[in-house]
Amino acid sequence: VQLVESGGGSVQPGGSLTLTCTGSGFDFDISPMSWLRQAPVHSLKWVAGTCSSGTPPKYTYSVKGRFTISRDNAKGTVYLQLTDLRPEATATYFCAKTFQGIPAARRDRGQGTQVTVAS
User: Fold this and answer.
1) CB of 16 within 8 A of CB of 108?
2) pLDDT of 54-72, one tens digit each?
3) Do 96 and 35 contact (CB within 8 A), yes or no?
4) Which of 17, 46, 71, 105 could form a disulfide with 78 if both were Cys (CB 3.0 to 4.6 A apart)?
5) Which residues pair with 69 in a beta bridge?
6) Angle at 3 between CA 115 and CA 63, to 5 degrees
7) What's the pLDDT score for residue 54?
8) What's the CA gap between 107 and 118, in Å, rounded?
9) For position 92, what pLDDT does the model report?
10) CB burial class (10 A; 0-12, 13-18, 19+) of residue 91?
11) What are the residues whose beta carbons fall under 8 Å from the beta carbon of 15, sequence distance 6 or more?
12) End-to-end CA distance of the chain
């Protein structure tokens, strides 16, 4: 399993970013995928998840309406669009092989990409 995130950066409050995660070494097109994040001195938290079936994506309450998860199975890629970013969104963002929650195996999430929201 290999998961590689990209697209992080520094933005001002109210700004936007799109994170990208490319997966390989497993059947991406049938695997549920999610995004997690870990803010400084906080634990890892689930943010959003998507299935390959018709199940609607799910989001943690704090990001509903501002973050959008999507996937391109042909490219083995899952995205997270972040809009109206707030300073509390500052965190390392990870993609993971799960629909909801934190995967038990460390190998089932990537190394992360840093998002910093500050003026």
Assistant:
1) no
2) 789 999 999 999 999 999 9
3) yes
4) 71
5) 80
6) 40
7) 79
8) 31
9) 98
10) buried
11) 85, 117
12) 37
Q: 102: which 2 tokens?
A: 């934190």
Which residue in this structure is represented by tokens 């549920």? 32
Distance from the Cα of residue 114 to its chain's centroid: 11
Secondary structure in 3-state letters for the chain: CEEEEECCEEECCCCCEEEEEEEECCCHHHCCEEEEEECCCCCCEEEEEECCCCCCCEECHHHCCCEEEEEECCCCEEEEEECCCCHHHCEEEEEECCCCCCCCCHHHECCCEEEEECC
| Strand partners for 66 | none
What six digits make up the tokens of 74?
A: 């042909």
What is residue 89's predicted lDDT score, i.e. its pLDDT?
97
